[in-house]
Design goal:
CATH topology: Porin
CATH class: Mainly Beta
Low-confidence stretches: 212-221, 258-285
Mean pLDDT: 78
Largest sheet: 14 strands, antiparallel, barrel
Order of helices and strands: HHEEEEEEEEEEEEEHEEEEEH
Helix content: under 10%
Number of helices: 4
CATH architecture: Beta Barrel
Strand order of the largest sheet: 1-2-3-5-6-8-10-12-13-14-15-16-17-18
Shape: globular
Length: 361
């Protein structure tokens, strides 16, 4: 549910049509076709940056390879881990803790993508998710509270489509007469001229729910994965050896959301996870999420990004900023959420390192 790429987060999180990294496994598996022959990406960030001594971290590492089978096929593999560290479940009216636990989630994602014709690309992804609670201690004072350390798992599929390079007349380019810089060979494939359309269906399948980490009389959560439809548009405005500019926008429709046994939706999840809408009690489906931003690249060696993420009533909106150093074949990226109403999204700092090995050798 967390958007892993610093490049994507620098532009508001919308990356379904604009992804050029291995993190396409997460956003739109069809975009793996934009990679070189061998690519690696990894990132990490602190989940609750405003909490002192917080040890909750998110980790993501992924790789992709192009093989000469079925007239070129791209395969990707990603590992995600979210650890909340050791924490205490307590009752404000009682001095004794209910339990001390070390919960963590991890996921393995597989993806494949293929080009069909000049413009169309298709991709499919499979993810397996496992939630584990390591129960360090529990209190017999609360017999109505059951804290289970039994692992829970689920799986789902993602489907992606990309149509690249239509309406090339809205693209402007310029070829410099100067000799290309020495790092030009490290650059990944350039974005196609004009517009690109990306569509993805995420978390589709027969087993998208897994049990809550804990159950009690007052709360019992079902934990479904956020099924959603993402539609995005990329506009490659200008491209040259000296400066490049593109803009991207994305619309996400949430198809299922978490609720507890009483039919209430958890506001903390809506604040923490970018996929959740604010319209939690009005209708069966969530409202739309909008994400947009742009990137300016200088000499293919540095880039700066700005973006905006907001929902239908702008209750969970925030601005984003990011930058990259190095050519796309060997790049370090940073993103920060510079404004947000909630502690969980404000001050997020995300770091990503991406390497395209065949561009460096």
């Amino acid at each position: 549910m967390i958007s892993p790429s610093a490049v994507a987060n620098g532009m508001g999180g919308g990356f379904v049509a604009a992804s050029t990294e291995v993190s396409a496994i997460h956003y739109n598996p069809a975009a793996l076709t934009r990679l070189g022959q061998v690519a690696i990406e990894g990132n990490t960030f602190k989940v609750f940056p405003n909490i002192k001594n917080d040890d909750a971290h998110y980790y993501y590492i992924a790789g992709a390879i192009q093989i000469n089978w079925l007239n070129q096929l791209w395969l990707g593999l990603a590992y995600t881990r979210l650890g909340l560290g050791t924490f205490t479940v307590a009752d404000i009216d009682r001095p004794d803790p209910i339990a001390v636990a070390d919960p963590r989630d991890w996921a393995i994602s597989l993806a494949a993508a293929k080009k069909l014709g000049q413009h169309a690309r298709f991709g499919i992804g499979f993810k397996y998710i496992r939630s584990i609670d390591v129960l360090l201690e529990t209190s017999p004072v609360f017999p109505y509270f059951e804290f289970s350390s039994t692992p829970a798992s689920t799986y789902a599929f993602d489907f992606g489509f990309l149509y690249e390079g239509f309406l090339p007349m809205v693209h402007f380019s310029h070829t410099s007469k100067h000799r290309p810089p020495p790092w030009e060979k490290w650059s990944s494939n350039r974005l196609p001229p004009g517009l690109s359309l990306g569509v993805a269906l995420a978390n589709i399948g027969p087993k998208i729910e897994y049990r809550s980490r804990y159950t009690s009389i007052s709360r019992q959560s079902s934990n479904p994965l956020p099924q959603n439809l993402r539609i995005g548009l990329l506009w490659n405005v200008y491209d040259s050896d000296d400066i490049s500019l593109f803009a991207t926008g994305q619309f996400t429709k949430i198809l299922i959301k978490e609720q507890d046994r009483r039919g209430h939706f958890d506001p903390a999840l809506k604040a923490l996870f970018t996929a959740w809408s604010d319209q939690s009690t009005r209708d069966e489906f969530g409202e739309a999420i909008y994400e947009g931003g742009f990137e300016v690249s200088v000499m293919r060696l540095a880039a700066i990004r700005f973006g905006r993420h907001w929902d239908g009533e702008n209750n969970f909106g925030y601005n984003t900023f990011g930058y990259s150093i190095g050519p796309p074949g060997l790049r370090f990226s940073f993103a920060k959420i510079v404004a947000g109403k909630y502690f969980s999204t404000g001050n997020w700092r995300i770091y990503t390192a991406a390497i395209v090995l065949d561009k460096l050798l």
